[in-house]
Amino acid sequence: MRVRASEPALYVLVALLAVGWITGFTISVGGVPATPDAGLYPQLLIAAVVIAAPWFVAIRLVWRRWWTRTGADLATLDPPAQLLAAAVAATPRHRRDWGAAMLAELDQVRDPAERWAFAVSSARAAAFPPRIKQVPTYVVAALGVAAVAAAGLTISRTMPALQVFGVTFVALLGVLALVTTARSRRILRPPAAGFVVTAVGLAAVAACVAAVGYFLTEFPIGALHLPPAAAVFLAAALAGAVWLVLNPPRGLVTSPQARYVGAGIALSLAAVLFVLSQRGLNDAGPLSVGILGFLFLAPVPVLLVGSLTTAFANRSFRTGAQTAVWAAVLTSLAFFAVALLEAINWYHVGSSLILAADGIPLVAVGENLRNFSWGLILFPSWWLPFGLLGAALGHRIGTLVRRHARGGDVQGLGSLG
Predict the structure, then answer these.
(1) Most buried in the list 117, 185, 254, 394, measured by CB within 10 Å?
(2) What is the spatial distance between Cα 112 and Cα 110, in angstroms, rounded to a whole number?
(3) Helix (H) or strand (E) holding 393
(4) Distance from C-alpha of 88 to C-alpha of 110, rounded to nearest angstrom
(5) Can you count the helices (H) and strands (E) in the chain?
(6) Burial tier of 223 (Cβ tally within 10 Å: 0-12, 13-18, 19+)
(7) Distance (Å, whole) CA 198 – CA 184
(8) Which parts of the chain span the membrane according to its record (predicted)?
(9) What's the rounded Cα separation, in Å, for the pair 273 and 265?
(10) 284 pairs with which residues across the strands?
(11) Per-residue confidence in pLDDT tens, the chain, 417 aa
């Protein structure tokens, strides 16, 4: 019954996702025309429904699994306990005993004001555990400030068009490094995502940054399509990817197989995109939908099958979901780098945009950069629900197969008796 009671919130969440996606897509293609065609808004409505449908099913599946395992118990807690429980859930594994002790101690506090004070202070301690020495934090802060200043001076002299993007990106990395140092007792530690995913993710981000720099070196006029707001958005997206790779949530790193498969999917799809782009994607056999069609459609079945396979092999929805997340994130980064570099070749060869037709004036070449920048968010948010559906299907099939096998074993033992 509680799941049914939550459905209005589910409808609102899916509607917000769909509206946000359509808004981002509209901005990525230059916004609504001054004199829009009469069929534009019905097309956007249809697109919103198409985006919302898989997300509705995927979120419903995830919600039901979460509610049966965690949500029902969490709903019995009062707001201070919920706050502390959420903070404890985000703590590293080695601090779980401390979190359990804090939750047990909160149960002994009866006064509402005191409960809130204890929950807030404990949540702050969970997010930023006390350090014996504060020197590393101060050092990282000083290095971050120096890096931002150096980046600003260097980029302003060598490539002014990248100044906002470069300074913002370096500043965000500095903030992330400072937060990580403040939360961790160990400065140097093995990457939580594993060396393979960490290497692929960081290499993909570096390739994206290099592609942006090379693109604006080849076409400085393209900076017209990277105003300050867009530059900050792109820097935040890439810095967020670095944060996810270096400091992934605990729920994304329980399965090494999911990370390997996700990285393999990303590298494979990027290689296929490069080969087909080199051939001229519009003439590549049945893939006559162009690069936009490939970016939009090709990862869908790949993520679905990849997540289904890992979920089935491990009898685990979580493993399949992790596969979907890593594949979606890493593929979006790899696609950005490959597509932006290929856009340079496309314009040199045929004066065409990679997502448009031939004969495009030079002033419009920066549309490639704007399109693919938004693609870092739009594409994975479209692919991901199909990966979650594959994870649910793989877990279901694996469970049925295991039950069938156990039934057969029981029958075999009965016949032996």
Answers:
(1) 394
(2) 6
(3) helix 367-416
(4) 20
(5) 16, 0
(6) buried
(7) 18
(8) 9-32, 44-63, 135-155, 161-180, 192-216, 228-246, 258-277, 289-313, 325-347, 372-393
(9) 12
(10) 287
(11) 344 445 677 778 788 888 888 888 888 777 777 677 777 778 888 888 888 888 888 888 877 776 555 554 555 667 777 777 777 766 666 566 666 777 777 777 778 788 888 888 877 776 666 654 566 777 888 888 898 899 888 888 888 888 899 999 999 998 888 877 776 666 566 777 889 999 999 999 999 999 999 888 888 888 888 889 989 999 999 999 999 998 888 788 888 999 999 999 999 999 998 888 877 655 444 444 567 778 888 899 999 999 999 999 988 888 999 999 999 999 999 999 998 888 877 777 665 565 544 445 666 677 888 888 988 999 999 999 999 999 989 988 888 887 777 665 545 434 444
202-295-212 Cα angle (round to 5):
45
DSSP character at residue 30: T
Q: CB neighbours of 89 closer than 8 A, spacing ≥ 6?
A: 99
pTM over 0.85: no
How many Cα atoms are found within 13 Å in the side-chain-facing hemisphere of 72? Answer: 9
Radius of gyration of the chain (CA): 24
Place of tokens 């997502």: 355
Q: Which residue has the tokens 């990817």?
A: 241
